[in-house]
Amino acid sequence: MAVRILAGRYELNERIGEGGMAVVFRSRDKLLDRNVAIKILRPEYTKDLMFIDSFRRESQLAASIVDPNIVNVYDVGKEGNIYYIVMELVEGEPLSEIIKREAPLDPRRAANITRQIASALSTAHKHQLIHRDVKPHNVLVTEGDVAKISDFGIAIKANPEDALSTEKKESVMGSIHYFSPEQARGAYVDERSDIYSLGIVLYEMLTGQVPFDGETAVEVALKHMNEPMTPPSRLNPDIPQDLEDIVMKATAKLQTARYATADDMITDINLIRYNRPSEYSQELAKEKGGNKEVKKTEPEETPEQKKARIRAEKKAAKRKKLLKKLAIFAGAVIAIIGIIIGLGKLLFPKENKSFKMPYLVGMNYTAALDYLKEFELFAEIDLQLVSPEPAGTILSQTPEADTQVKKGQTVKVNVSRGAHESAVPLLAGSTQATAEAMLKKAGYVLGEISGEHSESIPKGLVISQDPPAGEPLEPGTKVNITVSLGPSQGTLPVNTTTVPNLTQKTLDAAKTDIEKAGLVLGEVKEQSSSTVNEGRIISQSLSPGSQVDKGSEISLIVSTGRPPAREGTVDITLEYGKAKEDSFQVTVTLQDGTEGSSNVFVEQRTKASEPDKITLKGKSETAKVKVFYTYANGTIDTVYDYTVNFQTGAIQ
């Protein structure tokens, strides 16, 4: 059988794997004389231009990431209607096969594999790449237990909205068991979504099963969103408590309750006390008087007993289906009763001395003040911390949610001051004197002071500021504030409304809030931003929380995402004195963009040749430049291997 040569250099030898979207071949790179794995898209996906564009873009980004726990991507290209990725050939097996054969794994081994996957995700996240399909099938493990995560290029195409599609359920069943709740809802996905999936992988390594399963993808997705997870120690009491705590934190339903970064998860893994048994294991020990239960050997069942057992199992299955239907009906009845009780409480309220503290984490501080007003509670900022969350976002609260509080109580919160240490601090809720001191400490100056009536902000406290909190501005910049004059005399005029906080919201959500507030949408401008995601509001013309006349116009600035990369140039000098042979061919390849590597310089030279200065052009921050010498005997010598940042001109 003739051997297929791809792109003039890759020799396809044998098929070693395949999935729903691609086929993988063990191959040989003739140019560099090394074994590689080549993933080739199935023909049906080569007709989808949007898919191809995403495939190229994400694969190119994956190729720029170098990490010992990520399967290296060497090249991305196209030949005819064949789209392919050239990758590192890993001699190992998928983690899914190891789990199937050996689970539950030893806690130390499971933690070690998890640490390596988290390290790979940390590197990817620092390159602004979210995997979105972390699962045992996409992790290869070598004989030395080195874990390498793969499928950054193709698997990332998976659309979370497909999780609830009956037409495509077969294509997502392999991943739905590892989806985060926000992926199942089709909501915003970030680094913490990968951390959730990794927590599910760790759960499966420790127990041999996934925490949520069902007959359909919809059923599994709903469980991810709504059902509490059974602690893994209930299935495997030998799991250390510290390791169980890591699983439960990584798989929290709310993104804000999970590890903020993969590095934070690694820190906790490194601090595991393996001699600390789980709480459930300790309970079992107490119940058994400290003695482990002795397993009894059951006698082999007879054919008659086997038939009886099968009949009993079938009856049990029928009872289970009946009970399931009854449970659904009972749940509906309970929900109706709950609504009736809730309406009763609303129509006939009782005076309660205490009630449960509402959950504020993730809310904007100004919005939280209005929200707490409904409970007759107040909020006060304790600390402002540097955080990737938008300025003003509540990071923690005291008292915590669900604890008993009384009307009139003050809640202390820690809020984000933005991602920069030098960012403008949040002044809302502070006195004028405190606001001035905070600005002075941050290197800014108090500007104009205006007064405004407020129903939610006590008299003398700051309502709003301009520029807004979180902006990294030049030292000495003036910051204007609006101070509360307290509630207006009597009720607010019917033509007055409170300006909602629209920052970080989508334009559609902002339009809805503007309409509810009785305002009119004015000019909408677009602006690039490295901190606000594409399609979300950067700023608004009217300050959040301020009182304005209904019908007032409010203008918005919407993010277009990161600014487009500009083309830059970098010069490299080639010197030939150290060549192994006197005469040779010089080849310089540049990998920048989505079309794979291209030759930018091919010339014949000798050791005595004068140095060549080559000017390279590109846009990537992680372009790959390689220089090869090809000698007369066919030997290829890699002389230079650079990483070039065309935006800064840096060469590594």
Helix-strand layout with pairing:
Elements: E1 4-6, E2 10-18, E3 22-29, E4 34-41, H1 49-63, E5 73-79, E6 82-88, E7 92-94, H2 95-102, H3 107-126, E8 139-142, E9 147-149, H4 169-176, H5 181-185, H6 191-207, H7 217-226, H8 241-250, H9 262-270, H10 279-287, H11 303-347, E10 355-356, H12 365-373, E11 378-385, E12 394-398, E13 404-405, E14 410-416, H13 432-442, E15 445-452, E16 462-466, E17 478-484, E18 496-498, H14 507-516, E19 520-527, E20 537-540, E21 547-549, E22 553-559, E23 568-574, E24 583-591, E25 597-606, E26 612-618, E27 623-631, E28 636-645, E29 650-651
Parallel strand pairs: 11-14, 15-17, 19-22
Antiparallel strand pairs: 1-2, 2-3, 3-4, 4-6, 5-6, 7-8, 8-9, 10-13, 12-14, 16-17, 18-21, 20-22, 23-26, 24-25, 24-27, 27-28, 28-29
Describe this structure in words.
This protein is an alpha+beta fold and 652 residues long. The protein has five domains: 4-88, 2-Layer Sandwich (Phosphorylase Kinase, domain 1); 94-287, Transferase(Phosphotransferase), domain 1 (Orthogonal Bundle); 313-350; 354-419, Trypsin Inhibitor V, Chain A (2-Layer Sandwich); 568-651, Sandwich (Immunoglobulin-like). It has 14 helices and 29 strands. A six-stranded antiparallel sheet has the order 1-2-3-4-6-5, with helices on one face. Strands 25-24-27-28-29 form a five-stranded antiparallel sheet, with no helix packed on it. It has a three-stranded antiparallel sheet with strand order 7-8-9. A hairpin with a 2-residue loop joins strand 5 and strand 6 (82-88).
